[in-house]
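Table S7 (text form). Paired inputs.
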Amino acid sequence: MIPSQTKVFLVIFLQSYIVLAYDPDPVHDYCIPREEFTSIFLSCKNSSLVTVDDFVYSGIKDPGNYKHTGFSSIPVSSTVFPGLNTLGMSFVRADFDIDGVNVPHFHPRATETAFVLEGRIYSGFVDSGSRVFAKVLEKGEVMVFPKGLVHFQMNVGESPATILGSFNSQNPGLVKIPSAVFGTGIKEELLMKAFGLNDKEIAKLRKKFVPQ
């Protein structure tokens, strides 16, 4: 028989664990980081020093340079937009050339909503049962990608396309499947057996995806 005090402690511990698994709720209206403060502990500007410019960001007015790869993304977090700090959110602008692709990837700490600003985007995700949910999105449509699930996008229109993605985390994380598999130190023999590729094919993929 578990003592009552122990039960109470376990309930509090489990609730705390669940809460800590997500971005914590802010305890202030806002918290603009002090630029000179480098400690791991949070330090906010005095509210009298905060201005409207702390809550405005202009860095995604123009598209990124997608001409080389066909795809460009401009992430926006509290690092570049201080007004987002402690609010549990971030976002990204993604631009696609014709036939441009955002490779299969996932965000381990956030659900994403993707709003099509311009163009036609083939967009979808794969659930844990290997079921694919995908369709072509038109301008003005929105799709949601549940947290941690692999998703992808491709411009299928006849002109460049743009998506605005938003995340319910200040730090959603990003894992690109091709780079995670072929651009890291996974043993070559394993990759050959897993994907049915020979050593030359593996070397070609490694050259493409290993970070420069």
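Next pair, protein 2 of 2.
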Amino acid sequence: MEQSESSSTHLHQQPEQQQQQQQQTGSSDPTHHLTLPPGFTPEESNNLSSSITNFHSYRVNSTQCSSLLAQRIHAPPHVVWSAVRRFEKPQIYKHFIKSCSVSENFSMHVGATRDVNVISGLPANTSTERLDLLDDEKYVTGFSIIGGEHRLRNYRSVTSVHGFENDGIIWTVVLESYVVDVPDGNTEEDTRLFADTVVKLNLQKLASVAETIARGATADIS
């Protein structure tokens, strides 16, 4: 099996564009349009550009940081989405989660919440998270951290799943972006490095899970 690939990028915006937005809005809080990390083909970049603009752009102020990561997965998009959409069971592919609980009458809808227990060794114990977006047609989902014992204040994330086909070969690119407050005593670079590392590891595990299913080694996501 080919090894899955991933890469990350910092937020990027041209200074001229930023100045124009500040003049138009009178705000120092412009929208940052994140850019696709290197390592992807022109076809992939062209096809993903509109999704990046539509789903992975944030209002970022001087006390926040934002980033976009991407993962190429050798599996059909519907297989990847079957794992990504499972808000109630993030441990399917997310590292560092000891357990996740939802209410007894839980249903998958925007506004639903989950309580996550994090493994020891991280600067976090628990996290209460809310489902902000779930689109089973466009394969886009997103959540916010709204409570718990952790340092990721005002963390918001969006994940989108994109299918490609060329000469009978089907694969998927997953984009995941976030915006988060920079904690007191930390730098923007330190905060981004920590969050990027966690997201990157999660996306790599997602690739492993989805590719295993695509090979027929396991039936489905349970």
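Residues 188-214 form the longest helix (27 residues).
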